[in-house]
Amino acid sequence: MSKKIICAELINKFEKIFQCPICSSPMGIVDLKSLICSNNHTFDIAKQGYVNLMTRSLASRYDKELFESRKIIAESGFFEPLYRMVSEWIKNDVRLEEETVKILDTGCGEGSHLSRIKQKISSHSTGEVLGVGIDIAKEGILVAAKHHSNMIWCVADLAHSPFKSNTFDVILNILSPANYKEFQRLLNDNGIVIKVVPRSDYLKELREVFFDEPEKQSYSNQKIVRRFNANFETVDMFRLCYSVSLSKALISPLIRMTPLSWSATAEKIEALLNMNLSEITIDLDVLIGKK
Ligand SMILES: [Zn+2]
């Protein structure tokens, strides 16, 4: 079966979660080909197995190489402790047996986080787990759809998201900008939002090489944490700090996966490639909130 048909059938099965990003009316799959609203706004399913629901075009510096690099890094086990912790939380908090658990990853990029977390939850669930990933970067969604066909992948703008209110049990927002108004709308009353933000030591080995000014080498997430607390009742918050050993083959994808390198000169990138970095620090805050 083609990727397009598999995608259309999965969306067809869950078409009730969609609403038109233009006029907010209900949507349905027509001819296993397009997602169409009751006012005939039409979004075709792409042959690569995703649907583009953008209502305007947005330029993004996030290119294919960046997402392929993220995939390599994620698959090397970089974020495994994070996946373990997040999926434990979901397993303990969300009633997995009853009906389909719906998880939305906002800013999913190439889909590695969602796919791995879903896999971990599914192995402990007798019910079905639906994973939906959205990102404004089409290049990310293309990589996601290429490697994972059992989830719904949408190119979509979080500010005009194509889903009905009170739809999701879990909203993931991992190292990506939030839209709390939309999170409030999309989350069901018992649902949880899991936001992952970098702390000061996140990838500090890269910062130390890329930035000369000490104030740029460090980073504070205080404002982000305050905004989260103002929008959701924080039910848990934990810090996750660990170091990952790096093989030489991972250094180049590590540099390419992060916008930290965008402002770095070629000399600095060269210096980093030559310094035999053997470990990198992961330092994150995981915020868990309810409405
Ligand atoms: Zn419409």
From TrEMBL:
Residues 18-54 form the 23S rRNA (guanine(745)-N(1))-methyltransferase N-terminal domain. SUPFAM superfamilies: S-adenosyl-L-methionine-dependent methyltransferases (SSF53335). GO terms for molecular function: metal ion binding; methyltransferase activity. Zn(2+) binds at residues 20, 23, 37, 41. S-adenosyl-L-methionine binds at residues 79, 110-111, 202. GO terms for biological process: methylation. Residues 99-199 form the Methyltransferase domain. It holds the Pfam family Zn_ribbon_RlmA. Keywords: Metal-binding, Methyltransferase, S-adenosyl-L-methionine, Transferase, Zinc. InterPro entries: 23S_rRNA_MeTrnsfrase_RlmA, Methyltranfer_dom, RlmA_N, rRNA_m1G-MeTrfase_A_prd, SAM-dependent_MTases_sf. PANTHER family: METHYLTRANSFERASE (PTHR43460), METHYLTRANSFERASE TYPE 11 DOMAIN-CONTAINING PROTEIN (PTHR43460:SF1). This is SAM-dependent methyltransferase. It comes from Parageobacillus thermoglucosidasius. The lineage of its organism: Bacteria, Bacillati, Bacillota, Bacilli, Bacillales.
